[in-house]
Design goal:
The complex is a heterotrimer of chains A (about 325), B (about 160) and C (about 450). By secondary structure, chain A is of the alpha/beta class. In chain B, about 80% of the residues lie in helices and about 0% in strands. Chain B contains 5 helices and no strands. Chain C has about 450 residues and is mostly helical. Chain C has 20 helices and no strands. Classes of the chains: A alpha/beta (about 325), B mainly alpha (about 160), C mainly alpha (about 450). Chains in contact: A-B, A-C, B-C. The complex binds sodium ion (2 copies). One sodium ion (NA) binds next to helix 15 of chain C.
Chain lengths: ~325, ~160, ~450
């Protein structure tokens, strides 16, 4: 394959464009990556960032990346669960307990297995990004599994839904752009998503209570910065090296911003006059017990080698 | 022989179009069901919307050939009255050919798309998780019957 | 190749494709495919079907076939005729009463759904044939519905305002409230225009009747209804009011999301038509089914292919660079405002509202902030400019929807008929600049307190 000296790459993501210094950090991550790569390659590699689905739809990004029709993305990896079921592990309830533990995946056998598997499927992880989430509810706060009985709940992903359904929630499948109006019109009682998205989707305008993602959260989502393997292979070894190094250098930025958003979400909801609660350890443990019996089991049984993946993931302390 | 095949294709397409209309009605019924059971019985509604979306996409593609047969795909007809009829005839031939080529390409592309989903066993990432080759199959089939209908129409235009 | 050349090439190819006589859906797709083959990596080609599918895989969008079914059930059965006959008994004295009723119907329907083609189709299916039957010119009756349908994205709920709110971090609740006043203003402007235009058409018909001695023009048929006849027609409104009531309760009573309302509306309209107008025989049903499939397939194909077109355009970065260039121009606050409106209008010729919002908003947002524009107010302005795009050639979805409903009216007549309404939209933008309170009064008084 001919290595190209000068190239322009496209980075697409679904998050709102950050138009201020405290805008959506996932867009800022993408833009910083682009700027740093351009600088360190002396302008050889230029990256155009397309925020907010302005290049392609959320659900097309995974497939496009695999085929090399998209160069880069910041993507909740579990969105590819229909094509590569193993990635459901990266949005598994109560599996990750802290940002630090999540980042230790990269140097653990599970992380290396995941990286290898993704490279076989045509993509490569450049920045490891985890994000905690919370629960906005239209009525009383959702803290322990008992709180979800009979409420109309949007879990938003397969394994979360498996667990919430068992807890007695009436799983309600609405598209993410309808969470707002769904909560407003009481079609939805509660919704689970990342702290950042809680702010971006302005759910504090339509909810009464908010369970934060700081301290304890059963919802940690992996949304890495990814590059298509076919794009990566087209780059010169030096350019590849820059990509990998810049990607890794942004890991700390992403973690700090994600943590900041957990706090900021709590502040924004409190300021809007909404009851803000943190999840206590006892409640988290109840979720974890429930998750083990439901979502973890579902994954171990349904996915090829699921048991191995699960064991490797739980062995990261 | 030609008119026999043509007639059969037309009848098949019309039948499929009525079924596609029925599918839209079914989708409406499912939504009423979803709203009712969620409101009164607090049942989980985790598959209804996804199924409806699939049904409506299937209906869109499966109705395409019949819509074309009745010239239902709107075209801009501004030049029809402005150009001399000889030039118009050439223009229409060309338009027919390009339309046929484009739809043929999409049909071919759609079969590849279906084949990939079939081989990889792709499913939707939701809890319900239906196999995706099913809707993709109808997309490919719909585009194929549409392409055949277009071929038929341009052959007929040539004869006329 | 520089961006300007590429843009002009793309625009030229679009015009050639569309005016070649190819169906619009396939012309758009074809132009996209050709540019994809020339300017994009070859791997993109393997994603063509996937892109179309992924974009259609969106429930909000797929409410359109359901609303089309609703329109067809009423418009292609005796129900629509009956409704308009009853309406006419009450409105025959008002000049252009039926046209005004259609304008109001578009407005009310817009409050139920966030989609413009859906509004067009649901109201137009009975509205257009009924107006034409009573002598309204082809241009007036089709132009009115094409324009009235655009209110779907201004009067809440509105899909475009939601996307704008997410992109600009503005309260969606406030945006919705800000859309109400301008929505009513446009309804009023449209209705006044219809009344004026009706009088003019009637005077013309009278003049030509006097000249030729043939007074058979439908506009000149004097109708007269007694109060007894009017009251007798009242029960005929009941089934329609019942359907509207069910939909409104479901929407505003916390039963259903705006998208789900499409299903409820379609289901109960069909049920009503079958039960009350006895359209349960195959001979009746097949007409409804055939109409629904043809129209919804036509609209959805255009939408699906226009996504392919949008994808290629976004990939070529044309829209984004144009917006970026505009932001750097040293033209002052109102110069910038004028330039943005012009850009929105030009982009509206080619792209659907949702795509424009996604591509343009993030780029012009910093400049909007720097010039101190109220972002809620601007959201409304932007929506009105995008409404105009729905009825301008070459790509104007509402025009095509109307063309599908009334295939015997040439597209040229529809475009000519809709032109005055575009001027009224621009007038509304002007009024909003002079009197921002039209949009801002409601959100400032009733929100967040
Ligand atoms: Na609306
Ligand atoms: Na347009």
């Amino acid at each position: 394959q001919p290595a190209v000296a000068q190239t322009t790459l496209k980075l697409s993501h679904q998050f709102p464009a950050a138009t201020s210094p405290d805008g959506d950090f996932r867009d800022r991550l993408a833009k910083q990556f682009a700027a740093e790569v351009e600088k360190r390659t002396n302008g050889q590699v230029k990256i155009t960032v397309y925020p907010g689905n302005s290049l392609m739809k959320t659900n097309s990004q995974f497939g496009a990346l695999r085929k090399g029709a998209l160069d880069l993305t910041v993507l909740p990896l579990a969105y590819g669960g229909g094509e590569v079921p193993e990635v459901n592990l990266t949005l598994m309830p109560a599996l990750i307990t802290s940002y630090e533990q999540g980042l230790r995946w990269r140097t653990s056998p599970i992380g290396q297995k995941l990286e290898r598997h993704l490279e076989e499927k045509g993509m490569k992880i450049l920045t490891w990004v985890w994000q905690a989430g919370g629960i906005a509810s239209a009525d009383k706060a959702v803290v322990a599994p008992d709180d979800v009985k009979g409420i109309k709940f949007r879990g938003g992903s397969r394994e979360m839904d498996v667990m919430l359904k068992e807890a007695g929630a009436a799983i309600t499948n609405v598209p993410s752009n309808e969470i707002y109006s769904g909560m407003q019109s009481k079609v939805l009682d509660a919704a689970l998503t990342s702290s950042t998205s809680h702010i971006s989707f302005r759910l504090y305008e339509t909810s009464k209570a908010f369970t934060t993602g700081r301290d304890h959260s059963f919802w940690y989502m992996f949304e890495p910065l990814l590059i298509s393997m076919s794009t990566f292979n087209r780059l010169t070894p030096e350019q590849q090296k820059v990509m990998v190094e810049v990607g890794q250098s942004l890991e700390k930025f992403a973690m700090e911003e994600a943590k900041k958003d957990d706090e900021r979400a709590a502040e924004v909801f409190a300021k809007a006059g909404i009851k803000v609660v943190d999840m206590d350890e006892a409640s988290f443990n109840k979720w974890r017990d429930l998750a083990q019996k439901t979502a973890w089991k579902d994954f171990a049984e349904k996915v090829k080698d699921g048991k191995t993946w699960m064991d490797m993931a739980t062995s990261v302390k | 022989m030609f008119s026999l095949i043509a007639g059969a294709l037309r009848r098949f397409n019309r039948l499929v179009a009525y079924l596609s209309g029925g599918v839209i009605i079914v989708a409406a019924g499912i939504l009423v069901w979803q709203v009712a059971v969620r409101y009164w019985l607090k049942w989980p509604t985790d598959w209804e919307i996804e199924l409806c979306v699939m049904l409506l996409i299937i209906s869109t593609f499966m109705g395409a050939a019949h819509t074309q047969a009745e010239r239902g795909h709107v075209a801009i007809d501004l030049l029809d009255t402005m150009l001399p009829s000889r030039i118009n005839r050439v223009r229409q031939r060309l338009a027919d050919g390009l339309t046929f080529a484009f739809c043929g390409f999409i049909a071919f592309n759609a079969w590849e798309f279906f084949h990939e989903a079939w081989v990889d066993g792709k499913t939707s990432p939701s809890l319900w998780g239906p196999k995706l080759w099913i809707p993709y199959f109808f997309v490919a089939l719909g585009m194929t019957t549409l392409t055949l209908e277009l071929a038929l129409q341009s052959l007929r235009r040539k004869e006329a | 190749m520089d961006m300007l050349t590429l843009s002009l090439l793309f625009a030229t190819a679009t015009f050639i494709g569309l005016f070649s006589g190819m169906p619009i859906a396939f012309a758009l797709g074809g132009v996209a495919l050709v540019f994809m083959l020339i300017f994009m990596p070859i791997s993109s080609v393997s994603l063509v079907t996937e892109t179309i599918y992924a974009e259609l895989d969106n429930f909000t969008l797929l409410t359109i076939p359901l609303f089309v079914l609703m329109g067809a059930a009423i418009g292609k059965s005796r129900a629509g005729e009956d409704l308009y006959a009853s309406l006419n008994r009450w409105l025959y004295r008002v000049p252009g009463g039926l046209g005004v009723a259609n304008t109001l119907a578009c407005s009310v329907f817009s409050a139920m759904c966030g989609s413009s083609p859906a509004t067009c189709s649901a109201i137009g299916s009975s509205g257009i044939p009924q107006m034409r039957a009573r002598g309204y010119s082809d241009g007036l009756s089709t132009g009115l519905i094409a324009a009235g349908g655009t209110l779907g994205i201004l009067i809440p709920p509105s899909l475009t305002l939601i996307l704008y709110g997410l992109a600009t971090e503005q309260s969606i609740g406030k945006l919705f409230m800000a859309g109400v006043g301008p929505g009513l203003l446009l309804t009023l402007l449209f209705a006044l225009y219809v009344m004026w235009r009706y009088k003019k058409e009637k005077a013309q018909a009278r003049a030509s009747a006097d000249a030729s001695g043939d007074g058979s023009h439908a506009l000149l048929q004097e109708e007269r209804y007694s109060w007894a006849e009017r009251l007798e027609s009242l029960p005929r409104f009941a089934p329609f009011l019942a359907v509207i009531a069910i939909v409104m309760i479901a929407l505003y009573g916390g039963w259903a999301t705006p998208s789900e309302v499409a299903g409820i509306g379609a289901f109960f309209s069909l049920l009503m038509v079958m039960a009350i107008y006895r359209c349960y025989r195959w001979s009746d049903l097949r007409i409804i089914l055939n109409g629904t499939v043809k129209e919804s397939c036509m609209i959805m194909m255009i939408i699906g292919m226009s996504f392919l077109y949008t994808w290629v355009m976004s990939n070529l970065n044309i829209t984004q660079e144009a917006a970026q260039w505009l932001v750097t121009l040293p033209i002052g606050k109102w110069g910038f405002f004028f330039a943005v409106c012009a850009l929105l209008l030009v982009l509206g010729f080619f792209l659907p509202p949702v795509a424009i919002i996604l591509m343009v908003t993030p780029i012009i947002l910093p400049a909007l902030n720097a010039h101190g524009f109220d972002l809620i107010w601007f959201g409304v302005i932007m929506t009105i400019m995008l409404e105009a795009g729905l009825v301008t050639p070459p790509v104007g979805l509402n025009l095509f929807v109307i063309n599908g409903i009334a295939p015997d009216v040439p597209l040229k007549a529809i475009m000519k008929g809709v032109l005055p309404f575009i001027w009224l939209m621009l007038l509304a933008v002007l009024l909003l600049c002079v009197l921002p309170g039209i949009a801002m009064w409601l959100p400032n008084h009733y929100h967040g307190s």
